[in-house]
Specification:
Layout (H helix, E strand, L loop, with lengths): L12 H12 L43 H13 L1 H21 L5 E12 L17 E15 L4 H67 L5 H35 L29 H6 L1 H21 L5 E12 L11 E10 L7 H67 L5 H35 L37
Antiparallel strand pairs: 1-2, 2-3, 3-4
Helix pairs in contact: 2-4, 3-4, 4-5, 4-7, 4-9, 7-8, 8-9
């Protein structure tokens, strides 16, 4: 940024020229941030997804599922969710703080005007009555301006702006991370609701079958074909199955209430979903791309890297306190005893005050502040490495869970199909009179239990799919530009470029 101080007085030309030369030669002390430290991430997935083809558009992954209700819920949440609206406010706050830091480049200018009515003492050290033409009562009119400017010789302001800019980008990444979380939570709650609906239907069918079985056993007990123990056993099985119904209903209701809050509305807003029923979600292997893509997509990794950049810039801002500060003060205006002559050239006043200040001795506070900034940078570097490894761990676990979930769903589906065929054979035999009704109901109970288990497994795997999309960083546009860090010049005699070592070691 080029800053020129316009002063109309001939005497100011030499200082302004000298200051311009100083400004052009000014550089920022402290380490220049170039890139994040390398972290060992491995060569590839430990559990490949087993899927080929084009990768799903992760920025809007929920649309690939083809569920219009889920599309509506996510769209509403992205516009109305209160966490996302708070994140937007935090971005505005960070940008304002950046603008405040950038204000250090420009001079501060103030204007003033006053009317001073005064009476001077006749008995003072300078008796007014002894000065011809000078009245004891005077009215002084004053109008002017004053300006102050600190030349950023050693980059304190520049480093502060770099830190603030990196903080803005970190806040933007936090907002994207909140978006990822909100989308995932909406989808998780929605799939939990749908899964609970199917689980409830299967459980109620199983309870109905067990009720028929109990009625039949009681009839046989009445004619002496079975004992009381058989009745008690049938009743126990019915009670155990029925006891699970309220839990599923509570889960179903809680998921619907949670959706309302996620959409920034009263909890009961989406209770109507309890009455609707949509086709079952088809779960298939998901092409997830390369493992390294996770780090490029995850906004929490981006946020940690930007905070590392900000902490690096803060070292320079603290280091600049070791060096002298050059400030320029300027003032000018008009002063007169008569408003008719206030703006005449003879009423002009002006002053220019260069000021050099240097904290020569302060009990080691500046160096302590530098050490504080360096320690915080090391913490930020370790935090970055931790976030990277956690991101890879999340992705690996999510991929493993989903892959094994798909296998479990397939096995449960096979079990349901086999139980359905067995029940069909039993029904044919019952209609032919080869088996009793209680035997038919036993086969039906096996079918209902298989359907119940399938519904739970399918619901859990759908939630695992959401976790996988979240772990991959899906839910925001990774191609949106958030700005890139810029390096500032640094004299080799002051400090060299930044370098990183393994976490836990010194960061220079």
């Amino acid at each position: 940024m080029k800053i020129t101080l316009f002063i109309r007085y001939r005497a100011a030309r030499v200082p302004v020229t000298a200051l311009s030369a100083l400004l052009l030669g000014a550089c920022a002390v402290g380490p220049d941030y170039r890139e994040a430290p390398p972290v060992e991430t491995g060569s590839g997935w430990t559990h490949p997804s087993g899927a080929d083809g084009a990768q799903v558009d992760l920025s809007a992954w929920w649309k690939s599922l083809g569920d219009p209700v889920l599309d509506r819920l996510v769209t509403t949440a992205l516009s109305d969710n209160l966490d996302l609206r708070q994140a937007e406010a935090r971005i505005r706050e960070a940008r304002a703080l950046r603008d405040r830091a950038a204000g250090g480049y420009a001079p501060s200018v103030g204007v003033s005007g006053s009317i001073n009515r005064r009476r001077q003492s006749v008995n003072g050290p300078l008796p007014i009555d002894l000065i011809p033409g000078l009245e004891r009562d005077q009215t002084i009119y004053d109008a002017g301006f004053d300006a102050a400017w600190e030349v950023d010789l050693f980059g304190r302001t520049r480093r502060a702006v770099e830190s603030a800019e990196a903080s803005v980008e970190a806040t933007q990444a936090d907002a994207n991370n909140a978006r990822v979380s909100v989308v995932a939570e909406v989808a998780r709650s929605y799939f939990t609701l749908r899964g609970a609906q199917r689980e409830l239907a299967a459980r109620e069918a199983s309870v109905d079958t067990l009720q028929q079985t109990l009625d039949l056993v009681r009839m046989r007990y009445a004619v002496g074909d079975v004992s009381q123990a058989d009745v008690d056993a049938a009743q126990a099985r019915l009670a155990a199955a029925a006891a699970g119904v309220p839990d599923i209903q509570a889960q179903l209701h809680a998921a619907a209430l949670g959706l309302g809050v996620l959409l920034g509305a009263p909890p009961e807003r989406e209770l109507s979903l309890l009455e609707s029923n949509l086709p079952e979600l088809v779960l298939v292997p998901l092409p997830v791309g390369e493992r390294a893509d996770v780090l490029r997509r995850r906004p929490d990794v981006r946020a940690a890297e930007r905070r590392l950049a900000a902490s690096t810039a803060n070292i320079g801002a603290a280091t600049a306190e070791l060096f002298p500060k050059l400030s320029i003060g300027a003032g000018g205006g008009f002063q007169s005893l008569d408003t008719n002559t206030l703006f005449d050239s003879a009423s002009q006043t002006h002053s220019i005050i260069p000021l050099i200040s240097w904290r020569v001795f302060d009990g080691g506070r500046v160096r302590a502040e530098i050490h504080v900034s360096e320690a915080r940078q090391q913490q930020a570097a370790l935090a970055y490495e931790k976030v990277v490894l956690a991101a890879l761990g999340d992705a690996e676990r999510a991929l493993s869970n989903y892959r094994h979930g798909l296998d479990a769903v397939h096995r449960r589906r096979v079990a349901v199909d086999a139980a359905f065929r067995s029940f069909g054979h039993a029904r044919q035999r019952y209609e032919a009179g080869d088996i009793a009704l209680i035997d038919l109901l036993a086969d039906e109970r096996v079918l209902r239990d298989a359907e119940d288990a399938y519904a739970r497994t399918h619901s859990a795997t759908a939630v695992a799919l959401v976790a996988l999309f979240k772990a991959l960083g899906g839910g925001w546009n990774a191609h949106a530009s958030e700005g890139t860090p810029t390096a500032s010049c640094s004299p080799a005699t002051l400090i060299g470029p930044i370098s990183f070592q393994r976490a836990g070691q010194a960061v220079a």
